[in-house]
Automatic annotation (TrEMBL):
Gene3D superfamilies: B-lactam Antibiotic, Isopenicillin N Synthase, Chain (2.60.120.330). Residues 96-115 are annotated as: Disordered. Its cofactor is Fe(2+). InterPro entries: DIOX_N (IPR026992), IPNS-like_FE2OG_OXY (IPR044861), IPNS-like_sf (IPR027443), Iron_ascorbate_oxido_reductase (IPR050231), Oxoglu/Fe-dep_dioxygenase_dom (IPR005123). The keyword Metal-binding applies. This is 2-oxoglutarate-dependent ethylene/succinate-forming enzyme.
């Protein structure tokens, strides 16, 4: 048995409702990335270190592609439960469908959602058929590739600032290798059950940090609820609500990158709260791309603040702490 990861001990302390506090939400413009990389790297680094989170504009994924991915996501979740249940989550592989199965160490209660995870090498038997959902597989794989490209641009900036080669993280997340374990997660938070209206102790997604290097979160205007808390401010329990916009990507630094940077890049706590009684009570959809280093890659930081661990072992410990049911 491995000793409990520090990240899990931290997370277990974050279940309280806490308070709301405004923080600057910096929007980093990725236009003309090749020519402006050094400037963008400085802006990303400063936002990650000063504020703790940031959003991306002009990231190269056109709105039509994002909207198509969301439409497919809605259609997938609208399939009969028996159909989705034929493609169940394979916990060790981060692939497949689950419903109300994720229990966060912070809350101890299941998130009020269903999710479907796409991890390229492990999708055998997990796609709905073309008859059940035409064009789903092709649309979602194309979107995954677009998200990967943006994530690698951002990570190349962090690599430069950390003194690594610009392609350090791109090689660590190589989709051509069998150990690829980056994941596109489709999320559907259920419409609020009228009996639970105003139950602010019930979480659509309980407070957590992500297990990965970097998360790109795509949200839809009007479907709010995401709140962020930079890791460096965790003791304040003062959360910042993010207003969703279709054309922006909200980014979280995850725990793999925190380790890899000897804590220079702090991971963010985040959560999705239930709507307040005066807010929209309908369903909420989001798409999250998790850049998780390939299994065989060792997470070894320059200053050696953490003991080296393979990305495979690291991810499994975190997943096991969230999905006892599987
Ligand atoms: O849906 C969201 O906005 C957040 C999802 C999330 O944090 C996660 O799945 O890790
Ligand atoms: Fe998350």
């Amino acid at each position: 048995m491995n000793p409990m990861l520090d990240e899990l001990k931290r997370e277990a302390r974050m279940g309280a409702v806490g308070t709301e506090r405004p923080r600057e939400v910096r929007v980093i413009d990725l236009a003309n990335f090749e020519q402006r990389q050094a400037e963008i790297a400085d802006q990303l680094w400063d936002a990650a270190v000063d504020v703790g989170f940031f959003q991306l504009a002009n990231h190269g994924i056109d709105l039509a592609a994002t909207r198509e991915a969301f439409e497919m996501t809605e259609r997938f979740f609208a399939l009969p439960a028996e159909t989705k249940a034929r493609h169940p989550l394979k916990k060790g592989l981060n692939a497949g469908w689950e419903s109300r199965a994720q229990v966060r160490p912070s809350t101890g209660t299941p998130d009020q959602k269903e999710s479907y995870q796409i991890t390229r090498p492990h999708m055998a038997g997990l796609w709905p058929s073309e008859a059940e959902l035409p064009q789903f597989q092709a649309t979602m794989l194309a979107f995954e590739a677009k998200a990967w490209t943006v994530a690698m641009q951002v990570l190349s900036c962090f690599a430069l600032k950390l003194g690594f080669a610009a392609d350090f993280f791109t090689r660590a997340h190589d989709p051509a290798r069998p150990g690829y374990q980056s994941t596109l997660r489709l999320l559907h938070y259920f419409a609020v059950d009228p009996a639970q209206r105003a139950n602010m102790g019930l979480w659509r997604a309980g407070a957590h940090t992500d297990f990965d290097c970097l998360t790109l979160l795509f949200q839809r205007a009007g479907q709010g609820g995401l709140q962020l808390l930079p890791g460096k401010d965790m003791d304040s329990q003062a959360w910042t609500s993010i207003t969703p916009a279709d054309e922006l990507i909200t980014c979280n630094i995850g725990d793999m990158l925190m380790r890899w940077s000897d804590d220079q890049l702090p991971s963010n706590f985040h959560r999705v709260r239930n709507p307040t009684p005066d807010e929209y009570q309908g369903p909420r959809y989001s798409l999250a791309f998790f850049a998780q280093a390939n299994r065989d890659v060792m997470i070894e930081s320059p200053a050696g603040k953490y003991a080296p661990i393979s990305a495979e072992d690291y991810l499994q410990q975190r997943v096991n702490a969230n999905f006892a049911k599987y």
